[in-house]
Amino acid sequence: MTDIRTIKKYPNRRLYDTQDSRYITLQDVRQLVLDDAAFQVIDKKTGENITRCILLQVISEQEAQGEAVMSEDFLAQVIRAYSGAVPDVIRNYLERTLKLFIDQQQKLADNFCATAGSDPVRAMSEVAMSNMNQWLDWQKQGLNTVNTGPEGRSQNHPSKP
């Protein structure tokens, strides 16, 4: 089992990597994410795990530096989603969508290398069909979650006591 690297955030907003015994920047945190390193950020004063907040800061910095990935409309929709009744469904949907996107990028790269003289249209069609099937499965799962709730009972027709 790998140890989780601990980064402490001090009241002066500085981040301290306890593994390397040095102060780090948000850019260093970004590199840890890219390196797939396991870490957590702990607020030195409160002891609270603030990893999500720091990751959001990394994203914010990335968005401000170059071409933005998230449009204003998308960000507004995310904010609206917080007031929805099923945040777990939204979280799972967004996580799965991004994972699918990254996986498909890798598959396309692998297929392109493997079929470098073959039919690239066929390779793209196969990936598209795979994506469509996954989307349909996710929709069914999401609708089942919304309709049945966490205990498997219909939300539209609650059972009588």
Radius of gyration: 21 Å
Largest sheet: 4 strands, mixed
Percent of residues in helices comes to: 55-70%
**DSSP helix count?**
5
What is the average of the pLDDT values? Answer: 80
Q: What is the strand content?
A: 5-15%
Strand order within the widest beta sheet? 3-2-1-4
> H/E order of the elements?
EEEHEHHHH
**First-residue to last-residue Cα separation:** 47 Å
**Quantity of strands, as a count:** 4
Which stretches are poorly predicted, pLDDT < 50 over at least 5 residues? 154-161
Structural class: alpha+beta
Morphology call: globular
User: How many domains in all?
Assistant: 2
Structure description:
This protein is α+β, with helices and mostly antiparallel strands and 161 residues long. The protein has 2 domains: 5-65, no CATH class; 84-148. Helix content is 57%, strand content 10%. It has helices at residues 26-34, 51-65, 72-81, 87-114, 120-148; strands at residues 5-9, 15-17, 22-24, 39-43. The protein has a 4-stranded mixed sheet with strand order 3-2-1-4. The model is unreliable at 154-161 (pLDDT under 50).
Short description:
The protein contains 5 helices and 4 strands.
Descriptive terms for the model:
single chain; 161 residues; alpha+beta; 2 domains; four-stranded mixed beta sheet; 5 helices; 4 strands; 57% helix; globular; disordered C terminus
